[in-house]
Automatic annotation (TrEMBL):
PANTHER family: MUREIN HYDROLASE ACTIVATOR ENVC (PTHR21666:SF270), PEPTIDASE-RELATED (PTHR21666). This is Peptidase. Keywords: Coiled coil. InterPro entries: Cell_wall_metabolism_enzyme, Dup_hybrid_motif, M23ase_b-sheet_dom. It comes from the Bacteria. Pfam families: Peptidase_M23.
Length: 260
């Protein structure tokens, strides 16, 4: 049986075509090799670029971390400074408060002392004492006899040797200082409570009219001037400055805290 060759597209390739195909294959291989050769440096370059990029990223991360640490340190330092300022402020306020309390206490103590001093001075100025320190009465009030023009003693006599210090029995103002007739050298003082006291037979006078005197302040020296039989102090207490308004001097002094 005879075979016939297929026609058209079924026809086998010619030598030229096969050669072309072979050439094309070689070209393809060659091209592939070339491409591979070209591709390898590109790949290496890409790898290097990625490494460079990776190094840059690491550097950025490192710089960011360092910046964060610096910021954290700065924040910590700022916080420490803030706390130090707050602590110093609190200490300053505490010192100021302590100083204020100390000053207030010192002021209270000072005011208490001043009040105590004023009270002591008030008591002192309102106090009474004997006109001759440590003396005693030698002739009592209303004692009768011819020695007195009224027939009785209008005051009391205190024992006082010549030259003894005579003091005001309390606070007051001198209303008379000079010769008083039978009283000799005498002094009359209007006391702060409105009563009057008189000191007679003095050898000398040490105050003047209008002068303010205090308890225990020396006003004269005892003697025997005027109607007197010897050195002593004649003392009277009165409701007024004139003769005849006399009070019992012993009762007067005792009522004011004087013991005799």
């Amino acid at each position: 049986m005879a075979f016939t060759r297929a026609t058209g597209k079924h026809r086998g390739p010619s030598r030229m075509a096969r050669r072309s195909v072979g050439i094309a294959g070689v070209a393809t291989l060659a091209t592939t090799g070339v491409i591979g050769s070209f591709a390898s440096p590109a790949l290496a370059a890409d790898t290097d670029n990625r490494s460079a990029e990776d190094t840059g990223l690491t550097q950025v991360i490192t710089e960011d971390s360092l910046a964060d640490r610096i910021d954290a340190q700065a924040a910590a330092q700022e916080q420490e400074a803030f706390e130090a300022v707050a602590k110093e402020k609190a200490q300053a306020e505490a010192r100021a408060e302590a100083k204020r309390k100390a000053e207030a206490r010192a002021r209270e103590v000072r005011e208490e002392r001043e009040r105590a001093a004023r009270e002591a001075e008030r008591q002192r100025l309102n106090s009474f004492q004997l006109p001759v320190a440590g003396s005693y009465v030698t002739t009592g009030y209303k004692t009768g006899g011819s020695l007195w023009s009224s027939g009785s003693h209008s005051g009391i006599d205190f024992h006082a040797s010549y030259g003894s210090s005579v003091v005001s029995v309390g606070s007051g103002t001198v209303v008379e200082a000079g010769w008083g007739g039978a009283y000799g050298n005498n002094i009359v003082i209007r006391m702060n409570d409105g009563t009057y006291t008189q000191y007679g037979h003095l050898s000398s006078i040490g105050v003047y009219v209008g002068q303010s005197v205090e308890p225990g302040q020396q006003i004269g020296i005892s003697g025997s001037s005027g109607n007197s039989t010897g050195p002593h102090l004649h003392f009277e207490a009165r409701t007024g400055s004139d003769y005849g308004s006399d009070l019992n001097p012993i009762s007067y002094l005792r009522a004011r805290g004087v013991s005799l």
